[in-house]
Amino acid sequence: MGDHNQPFLPVSGDPECVPIQGDDVVDDSLHRPQQGSTKSKLLLAVFSGIFVVCLILAGGYDKSGVVKVAQLGGVDELGVGPIEMPAGSTIVRPAVSRGKSAGVSEKANLSPEQLLGGGEVSGDGLTEDFPWNNSMLSWQRTAFHFQPEKNWMNDPNGPLFYKGWYHFFYQYNPNAAVWGDIVWGHAVSRDMIHWLHLPLAMVADQWYDVQGVWTGSATILPDGKVMMLYTGSTNESVQVQNLAYPANHDDPLLLDWVKHPGNPVLVPPPGIHHKDFRDPTTAWKTSEGKWRITIGSKVNKTGIALIYDTDDFINFELKDGFLHGVPGTGMWECVDFYPVAVAGGNGLDTSVNGAGVRHVVKASLDDDRHDYYAIGTYDEEAGKWYPDNPTIDVGIGIRYDYGIFYASKTFFDQSKQRRVLWGWIGEWDSEAADVRKGWASLQGMPRTVVLDTKTGSNLLQWPVVESESLRLRSKEFKNVVAKPGAVVPIKLEAATQLDIVAEFELDKEAVERVAESDEEFKCSSSKGAAHRGALGPFGLLVLSEETLSEQTPVYFYVVKGKNATLRTYFCADQSRSSLANDVNKQIYGSYVPVLTGEKFAVRMLVDHSIIESFAQGGRSVITSRVYPTKAIYGAARLFLFNNGTEAGVTASLKVWQMNSAFIRPFPNL
Ligand code: DQQ
């Protein structure tokens, strides 16, 4: 069989012409009963206690920290305004742009086009008809993805490994299941799978962050001290950068944080709008011995990464020009900058530079709510970064994830010498449903990130190895054949918490027989899994109901082009994922390189309303949020399908039932 191994392609051939691909959309909501019964709380406390004793035995916790939780400052008088919708559409979601008016974005900040979804999918948008019940809504709560106990969460903040604990901070609204009143939630873990919630790390109690303690990053200094830089939205909605540090560096839980008395340490420089200056990165060392950070911004429609040097995290020097900028990409949020080893293998500390190292720049594009990265060369002296391939520069080329994944951030895990990526997974149903359910959003499974040494032009993302500790019983299905048009049941005892590893092969003779085609395929504008080509779609129907009335196909689609070259696309189709009509049902995905000798391969983590799918070892990733009404609990099924017309598919799968993670309050604090 022929193969195709071109690198990822640009979204548009012309980077000047607003090249953002409207493939997919972030959107959201759900709901869930808020608190468990007293009895279940008691059980949870007992289990948490046992868990913590184990943790203490495993590593020891020194409870020397003092918890001090300040009061919230008053926030949230952000307006809610109507938007124009096509005739006949009833939108439940408040068509708000609270994020925009506050200078940031959140899930309600979507255009009518985004709300309605793209292409041929559910064109009726989000309507309020579906009678959700508690059982359906409860099912949507995930079992092994990080979530607070209740309310709204968005960006990951300041992840780090400190004195035996992984710390995870996050943008959190302690008062509601919608964006607003943002403070820093905090949790710790020994393995990034089981988590213990801690008191809020930082609240909005100063003039320079009273409108929100927004996103930031941690830097661990050579002496082990932690510097946390974060964006504050001031009493006048100016975005400034602030410094915080642990009150007690001997406390492994880092419970108590001190805000530097001289805050803010940075205000918007001349020429930068006061609402376009946010999300400082982890600092890295220059050869002069200074620390360097970058902060996202924009000038007109050019997204940029400003660059500053500092000796002490208090006094900063703005460097001339930008680390990088890309016309047409708009505001860059949550910029990330880090080295990757050309030889693959371990991850690298953020300060590593020199031979054998490439540098990644990632920006979260406020305009389209997707995370784009590019690989390139860092010129330390000039304070510049250059993409290897300008046609796939930041914001116009490769995305971390072609589904729902935003505001991501990596950190270097010095305990396991790896770089780990966290990303915020929003909701795709109505905000009204969020409110009813009492929670919104989750975090993706943390992913290790390395350079793809086979292509040299993209990263590979993979669930951290600790995710495998959740694997329970497994079942193997070898050489299952799906003829053109076939749907084959994969019989499992349950199908809502799964880890699936699958490989697919197309019938070689059929591939050779198939005529060359000039089809220009795009996941988002095709008819999804219902679109029948010669060589696909083929893949798995996840969270499917027995009669297929609800199904979420995750699949490959292959086009045989000129000179028998094959191009493969990896897609996920939400259009039939739910009988409800108040959820977003887009189809999304991208081209994915499949190299000589490789089979079509996917790993999927299915966890109730989230499906994370990693194709070709993590070369392309799609995260889906789906809200079935029937394919839930024991009624969920898994099927192999082949909707191609010309070639049979042979699949081999291993499927594990996945345990639930312990995600509980830290006991006795
Ligand atoms: N979320 C934060 C901002 C950031 C945005 C506010 C990205 O700091 O730019 O909640 O989702």
From TrEMBL:
Catalytic activity: Hydrolysis of terminal non-reducing beta-D-fructofuranoside residues in beta-D-fructofuranosides
Cell location: Vacuole lumen
Domain Glycosyl hydrolase family 32 C-terminal: 468-657
Pfam families: Glyco_hydro_32C, Glyco_hydro_32N, INV_N
PROSITE patterns: GLYCOSYL_HYDROL_F32
GO CC, alphabetical: vacuolar lumen
Pathway: Glycan biosynthesis; sucrose metabolism
Taxonomic source organism: Linum trigynum
TM segment ranges: 42-61
Family of the protein in this entry: Belongs to the glycosyl hydrolase 32 family.
EC number: 3.2.1.26
Residue stretches making up the Beta-fructofuranosidase N-terminal domain: 33-137
Name of the molecule in the record: beta-fructofuranosidase
InterPro entries with a match to the protein in the record: Beta-fructofuranosidase_N, ConA-like_dom_sf, Fructan_Metab_Enzymes, Glyco_hydro_32, Glyco_hydro_32_AS, Glyco_hydro_32_C, Glyco_hydro_32_N, Glyco_hydro_beta-prop_sf
GO MF annotations, alphabetized: beta-fructofuranosidase activity
Keywords assigned by UniProt, alphabetized: Glycoprotein, Glycosidase, Hydrolase, Membrane, Transmembrane, Transmembrane helix, Vacuole, Zymogen
Domain Glycosyl hydrolase family 32 N-terminal residues, every copy: 145-463
